Amino acid sequence: MIVSTSMSASSTSSVFDAEHRTLTIGLLLVITLVAFENLAVVTIAPTIARSLDGLLLYGWVFSGQLLASLFSIVVAGQEADRAGPARPFMLGLILFTLGLVVAGFAPSMQILILGRILQGLGGGAVTVAVYVAVNLAYSDTIRARMIAFMSTAWVIPALAGPAAAGFIAEWLGWRYVFLIMLPLILLVALMTLRAFMALERQQEAEKSNWQAALFLVLGAGVLLAGLSMENPFIFALMVILGFVATLPSLYKLLPKGTMSLGKGLPSVLAARGFFYASFVGVEAFIALMLTSVHEFSSAVTGVAIATGAISWTLGSWSQDQWDKRAAHQRHVRIFIGSSIMTLGLVLQLVSLYTTVVPLIITLIGWMLAGFGIGLAHSTTSVLAFALAPKGEEGHVSAGLQLADTFLAALATGVGGALFAYATRQGLGEQTGIMLAFVFSLFLSSFSIISAMRIGSVAKPQASSSFKS
Questions:
Q1: Bridge partners (DSSP) listed for residue 199
Q2: Which residue has the higher pLDDT, 417 or 342?
Q3: Do residues 229 and 421 make contact, with C-beta atoms less than 8 angstroms apart?
Q4: N or C: which end of the chain has fewer CB within 10 A?
């Protein structure tokens, strides 16, 4: 098992004490950087699509990034278990930087999507490395607090990021939203590398699952591409081939029982995948709803999207306080959070068709959705790490990110395909957005079911639940 040279899993009083201070600050800086970029792209995506004449490829701005991260998540998790999180972390930053450059200078929608793919490869590795570092360096007694701080790192980007992206896109051009991030990455690398290197290496190498990860990415890509095909025969063929390649890979990469909603860790990951996918699936189309259907500006849209990130932080801190009083009720928090989030997403569907204060309804619904997922998402991280088998921190971290990423890619991909279908059939953008929202709500219902299957669990599992 990877251990820290100076930051063991023993009980400590604060995430900012002498043992943890440097790593804590570094992790919060990384989360802040990622938050700025994620919120910015959601805000400016409609502007990019129109500028590059690629509205029919709109969903791939998100799906391409998410699919690429699937591969790097698995590889980075295995490398983190073998040699520590430093190497995947630094490689991830390099790939993320290349993605920003490619996207910032993209002459077409296809090249823009290539940049997003590079960002996905880098972002997936960075995220896994961050969560592995959290699991290794912080004890269970303060891990909920650290995860709450990580959610808080979204506050400044949430307040300034989307609005700033909207203003930059309007006054300077959307390309600067990508390029302005480059100096910040160098700062992050300088401030975090030493702390990551302090985590010792594991000596025993584990069997690689990169082939399963590659088949997962290819299968998911074929599946999502098939969903956008107009020819019924090609549509059916690609969807079937996609499922054939994807399902066995998921079975191998996820904990045993995840796909059948087994109790404990499997259902924790399943619930996380479903509620995160439904949230992202709606988030991807909120900007389009506000700008195209209700004709609000990019700046107003950015502020509206920011409210979800702020309330997400409030939900995460609520789970921290709840955890102090009743750690054994973590499964209850996941259920409650998923339910609140679903209510907030329903309000987005209402806002889509209302002509009376649609912005107010969007804001209220998005704040509810953000609070609910903040409560549930942070809790799944804490509970999954509590249940992580010894020596498999990287696997569990990768499992969490796979749960986040695969279904999120499916949600945005299916949503994009439904939107493109409605547009081609002359049904209008409003109908296309509605179809995307309904699919996301379908996924959110499964998050509630999965949360009910977790059961009361508080102790780590004694043996591995991952397939080799």
A1: 4
A2: 342
A3: no
A4: C
Report pLDDT for 439.
93
* Distance, CA of 396 to CA of 414 (rounded, Å): 27
Cβ-count burial 323-344 (b if 16+ within 10 Å, e if not):
beeeeebbbebbbbbbbbbbeb
Closest residue by Cα to residue 73 from 36, 113, 137, 122? 122
User: What spatial distance separates the first Cα and last Cα of the chain, rounded to whole Å?
Assistant: 17
The mean pLDDT value for 396-405 works out to: 78
Q: How far is CA 245 from the centre of its chain?
A: 23
Mean pLDDT is highest, among 3-17, 165-179, 349-363, 411-425, for 349-363
The number of beta carbons lying within 10 Å of the beta carbon of residue 427 is 14
Residue 454 near residue 267 (C-beta atoms within 8 A): yes
116 touches 61 (CB < 8 A): yes
Residue 4, SS3 per DSSP: strand
Residue 82's pLDDT band, with cuts at 50, 70 and 90, is: confident
Pick the CATH number of 21-208+254-454 from 3.40.30.10, 2.60.40.10, 1.20.1250.20, 3.30.70.270: 1.20.1250.20
DSSP 97-155: HHHHHHHHT-SSHHHHHHHHHHHHHHHHHHHHHHHHHHHHHS-HHHHHHHHHHHHHTTH
Window from 244-258, 329-343, 432-446 with minimum mean pLDDT? 244-258
Looking at residue 202, its pLDDT comes to 58
Which residue, chain included where needed, has tokens 């509205």? 55
Say which residues have a Cβ less than 8 Å from residue 317's Cβ, sequence separation at least 6: 148, 151, 152
